[in-house]
## 1
Amino acid sequence: MSTPSEEGAANLGFAGQQVVLEPLLAWLPSGARVLLSADRFYPSAGLFGWLQARGWSDRLRLKSNVLTDTGQGDETTTGALAHGVTERYFTGVRLFAQGVITNLGILHEDGHPEPWIIAMDAAPTRASVLDDAARWAIEPMFSDVKGRGFDLEDSQLQHAERLERLVLIMALAMYWCVRAGRDEGLNDPTPLEKKSRRRTTPRIGASGNSIVAWSRGSRAACAV
């Protein structure tokens, strides 16, 4: 989830990540295929090892200061590999001082200030890099639950049962809001909504054998 050299409020460290991940093992059905997609604040050597031990797939976005050895020269950083290129792909690269082995995909699209630097267990291609776009589907939900919506972090509830009830109420409220907004958009669309319906949306992204959910960046099923 971030490089191991940085610590801060956004970096839980692997111990904190493990507390969140371990309970998921009991929730998953036998044989479920899982892909973990994480933002660039989070990747760590401990997380890579945990994922590999359990056979989970991954698309983990990296910062530009991660130590990297591609086997094609001296050690460098992910930022140096991404500098001045539009696309670049590596297999069997070593990350961090601990020597985590993974594949690496770099994609810098027009209009984006920074490149995507994605560590992955799959063959590195443009499509597998764009698998990370599936993560965007949950970002609006985070905003709705937090400061742009229900302000969950300001509840200051201490008891787990009370927090669970609040989250349930919020989930029902969010469903109602989305359903009401959808119905209004269908039955009484604004001029902008009418215009967007006439525009076709190109779909790009994951290859047919990807396990990522259908989105603009992919086209298969995700078991996360």
Note: The first strand starts at residue 35 and ends at 38.
## 2
Amino acid sequence: MARPFLSRIALMTVLAAATHTAWAALDIGDPVPKFTANAALGGKTFRYSLADALAKGPVVLYFFPAADSNDCSIEAHAFAEAVDQFAALGATVIGVSADDIDTLSKFSVKSCQSRFPVASDEAKTVIQGFDAVMQTRPDFANRLSYVIAPNGKVAYYYQNLNPDKHVERTLNAVRALPKATAAK
């Protein structure tokens, strides 16, 4: 009788360890998965390609849990206000969530102020690829921001459910990129 119980404990320990590593952010220097996704900018949908964006310079890729939630709207508004600062440094911004493209199309106008695109990842393949699954609510992306260098590697990441510091921290990280990298 004790043996099945111990086997269950061992299995739960292994699963917990495997699950824990699946929700850790990609580390600095890690190559990022390239992706294409349906995205919206100013209410218009298009096909976004991370590889195409990186060919132009660094990319600030931020994941957010749900369009139109209070904190996600605050964060999107803050990124919209800072888009010109990112652009002056040669960087672009893209937001990603598991919301459907119709929801994000409206969100791109309302909260993003038609200043940067947001991509739909209903299948959560991009979210999983970037280790951005919210551990406590796996149907949602965690609030996680990356600065990706043009070489396709993580230059910086910041994970915090509070939306207040994501723009400031990613902007500082883009400023800290080597000039040849930032201005590609």
Note: The beta strands are 36-41, 44-49, 59-63, 92-97, 118-120, 144-148, 154-159.
## 3
Amino acid sequence: MPVQRSSIKWLRRLIGPAFIFYSAAVIYWMFIGFGREIHTGGILKYNLVPLRTVLLFLNLDNGVALTDRIINLIGNIVVFIPFGFMLPLIRNRLYSLTRLTLYAIFIILILEMMQMLLHVGSFDVDDLLLNMVGVWAGYRILRFSKMNSEV
């Protein structure tokens, strides 16, 4: 049985505030959480080499704590899963994977650049890649749940 239009409208009304709240939480985590502090001056930190950070965290002989590995690798994916299913529900045109991808890349690039420019973190292309895996996973969850609700 197909999903009723009234159910979709109700879901969108619920998702909108949830999206705003979740976005605020992500911004907090990226700019203030995890003990981040603004370090004025100094060099800007960045990594433009794809998979450099991922490979660093997968190398078990480098002395990086397991919790740091989990937070960086899995955390960067999991934290963006909700965006993959919330954004298409809020904006119909983002049901297109291509449009969702372009939109999410643009937003994540801005966030990564802001972290670097405000000296509260670094710009890391690997974070962008991991975040996008999260967005795509969320989109897949949405498509899977939509497919099952129409059966």
Note: The two ends are 6 Å apart (CA to CA).
